[in-house]
Amino acid sequence: MLGNFSYHNPTKLYFGEDALTFLAEELDQYGPTVQLIYGGGSIKKSGLYDEIVAILRSCGKTIVEDGGVMPNPTADKLRQGAKIARENKVDLLLAVGGGSCCDYAKAVSVSAYCGEDPWDKYFLRFEEPTCKIIPVGCVLTMAGTGSEMNGGAVISNHEEKLKIGHVFGDDVMPKFSILNPRYTMTLPKRQMVAGIYDIFNHICEQYFSGTDDNTSDYIAEALMKSVVASSRVAIRAPEDYEARSNIMWTATWALNTLIACGKTTDWMVHMLGQAVGAYTDQTHGMTLSAVSLPYYRHILPYGLPKFKRFATEVWQISPLGKTDEQIALEGLAALEGWMRELGVATSISELGATEEMLDGIADATFILDGGYKVLTKEEVKEILRESL
Ligand code: NZQ
Ligand code: ZN
Q1: pTM given for the model
Q2: Largest alpha-carbon pair distance within the chain?
Q3: pLDDT tens digits, 153-195
Q4: From the CB of 148, is ligand 1 less than 6 Å away?
Q5: Could you tell me the fold of the domain covering 12-183?
Q6: Does the C-beta of 81 come closer than 6 Å to ligand 1?
Q7: Does domain 189-387 correspond to CATH entry 3.30.70.260?
Q8: What is the CA radius of gyration of the chain?
C-alpha cells in the first residue's frame, strides 16, 4: 500500500542537445559571483569548460575557480571548497561534471557557513544544515548517480577509511540541472558501463523491498528494461544519441525520489559498495557490481516472490515447469550475463580488495533495514568473502 507521503522535487531540468542555451537565463537569477566546480580536466579536453566560461562572462559573472574535484570527493577537498565559497562570498555553486562534482557542490553548499567541521557534522553525526545554504546548479557530463536531481552528497575520508552519504533536503537539491546526452559521449567505456550499472542498481535498491502491489515497482521495471536495452546499443555504438539520451534520462529517474514513493528501500549493495570504495577508492559503479550477485543470492530466499517477478518481468524468463526458486535464480543468472556484456567488475579482488581488508570493510559497512533481510555482521563478512 502506498500510504501517506508528500512529493515535491524542486530541481528544474533542461534536457537535450540545446540544454546549455538555458544556462544564461538561470544565471540571471543569482548574484555576481559563481564558484565553478569541475573535476580532473575532462571538461577542458572536451571544450565544455570554454563554453561555460564564455557564458559566465557574457552574463557578467565573476568566476571563482574550483577544479580538481576527484572521483569520490574527499573531506579535505570539501573543507577547501567551503573555505573558497565563504571567502569569496559566492552566490552560486556551478558544478560541471559527473556525480562527484554535483555531490561535492551540494556538500560545499551546506558547509561554507556551518561554522564547524562539515565531515563531523554532516557525515558522522548526520545533522541537518541550519546555516545559510548556497544554491547549486549542475551541468552533467556523466550519467549514473542521479545527483543532478537529488539531495545526496557522498564524501570519502581516506584517513578514517569511511565513505558516507548524506541525503539532504529540498533546499540543498540543485536549483537547475542541464542534461545534454552528447556530453556523455567522451566518457571512457569503463566509466560509461560503471554509470550504467549504478543506474540499474539504484532501481534494484528500491525495487527489492516490500511485498505489496506498488506502482513504484511497475515504473522500476520499465526503467530497468530501458537501461538494459539502451546499454546494449551504447556498448556497440557509443555515439548512438538515442541510447545515450535514454541512459541519461533513466539515470535521473532512477534516483530522484520518484520510485522510492511507498517503498521501504534496501540500499545494502550501496552500503557494501561504499565500504569497498572507502578501502579501494575505486569507481563507484564497479564497487556495486562487485558485491551485487553474492548479496542478491544471499537475500533471494527472503524475498522470493519479488526475485521471481524480477526474472519474469525484467528478463522475460519463462516460468513454465519451474519452481519459484529456479525462476528467481534464472533472473539473477540473466543479470549476471548482462553484467558480463557490460564488462563491469564482478569481484572485489579485481578492485584491489584483499582478504586482510575484509574485517575492516565489514566494519565500515552500515547495516540498514528496509530490504528483505537485515544482515548480521557475520552475513556482511560472508557476502564480502563471496565477493572476493
Ligand atoms: O574528473 P574528470 O576529469 O571530469 O573525469 C571524470 C572522472 O574521472 C570522468 N568523466 C566524467 N564525465 C566525463 C568524464 N570523462 C570524459 N568525458 C566525460 N563526459 O569520469 C570519472 C568519474 O566521474 P565521477 O563524477 O566520479 O562519476 P560518477 O558520476 O559515477 O560519480 C561518483 C560519485 O557519486 C557518488 C559516488 O559515491 C561517487 O562518490 N554517488 C552519489 C549519489 C547521489 N548523489 O545520490 C548516489 C550514488 O549512488 C553515488 O554514491
Ligand atoms: Zn550509486
Answers
A1: 0.98
A2: 69
A3: 999 999 999 999 999 999 999 999 999 999 999 999 999 999 9
A4: no
A5: Rossmann fold (3.40.50)
A6: no
A7: no
A8: 20
